[in-house]
Amino acid sequence: MQGISTPPRDGSILAKVPLFASFSDEQRAAVATRLQTRRYPKHAVLVRENDPGDSLFIVLHGNVAVTRSAGDGKENILSILKEGDFFGEMGVLDASPRSATIKALDDVQVAILARDDFLDVLTGSPKMCVLLVLGLSARLRATNEAIQAAAFLDVPTRLASLLLNLGNNFGERTPDGVRLTLRLTNQEMANMIGTTRESVNRTLNRFWDDKLIDMHEAHIVIKSPAGISALAGKLRV
Predict the structure, then answer these.
(1) Helix ranges (DSSP H) in the chain
(2) Sheet hosting strand 221-222, strand order edge to edge
């Protein structure tokens, strides 16, 4: 972890954070006076499962993985958060220990809002409360879909669903298809869909042979979003 720093006091650091979308420039500036920022290198642990829930984290740069221990020395990746996303809100709201471990997937910068400050900000902003609930609802839906996929769907369907979600959240359109800007190892993808690295490797190669994806470069390119969508099906709860 690199040193703690103070963000710009004009609130510009929060301008692209959806949680503060309803705030005026003056309100964001007021929140910024309560923030500290930290930088973490790739693979660093930002928060550990069962740590005290004493602050809200906002991802300003980079991507983080939300993980939980599987009880056999392995870990499950529950979700990946990107710039503008937040975590740690549950522990802050009910003062419970952290329910997951957060790891940096690349170089990451976060803003940190202490529990008392976060609750004070929520009290003064009903619309922020609504945005928080919407964010939590989206996260719960994603978790339900992941549970459903792990319980009832085969590996190709689960992997296609993962690629589709990564394309929606971390994809950029190119002449060749949707390029995934987030690089995950096969093991990390396996941890997300509850299978083995070998199964992911075989299935990716099958998708490549079927011209659904391309893996010539460091980043996966989804060449046929329609084909991946057809494989994924419509997972809705």
Answers:
(1) 25-32, 89-94, 115-123, 126-152, 155-170, 186-193, 197-209, 225-232
(2) 171-174, 177-180, 221-222, 213-214
Over range 215-231, report the average pLDDT.
93
Residue 125 half-sphere exposure, CB side, CA atoms within 13 Å? 23
Q: Where are the domains of the chain?
A: 4-141, 153-232
Domains 4-141 and 153-232 share a fold: no
Tell which phi-psi region holds residue 73, choosing left (phi > 0), alpha (psi between -120 and 50) or beta.
Answer: left
Distance between CA atoms of residues 81 and 83, nearest Å: 7
Q: In residues, how long is the chain?
A: 237
Per residue in 90-115, pLDDT tens? 777 777 788 889 999 999 999 998 88
Instruction: Compute the distance between CA of residue 110 and CA of residue 61 in angstroms, rounded to an integer.
Output: 7
Residue 234 has pLDDT above 70, yes or no: no
Domain 153-232, classified CATH 1.10.10.10, yes or no:
yes
**Which SS3 state, helix, strand or coil, does residue 173 take?**
strand
Angle, CA of 187, 163 and 48, to the nearest 5°: 50
- The yes/no answer on whether domain 4-141 falls in CATH 2.60.120.10 is yes
Q: How far apart are CA 184 and CA 176, in angstroms?
A: 20
Q: Which residues contact 50 (CB under 8 A, 6 or more apart)?
A: 97, 98
Cα(185)–Cα(34) distance, integer angstroms: 37
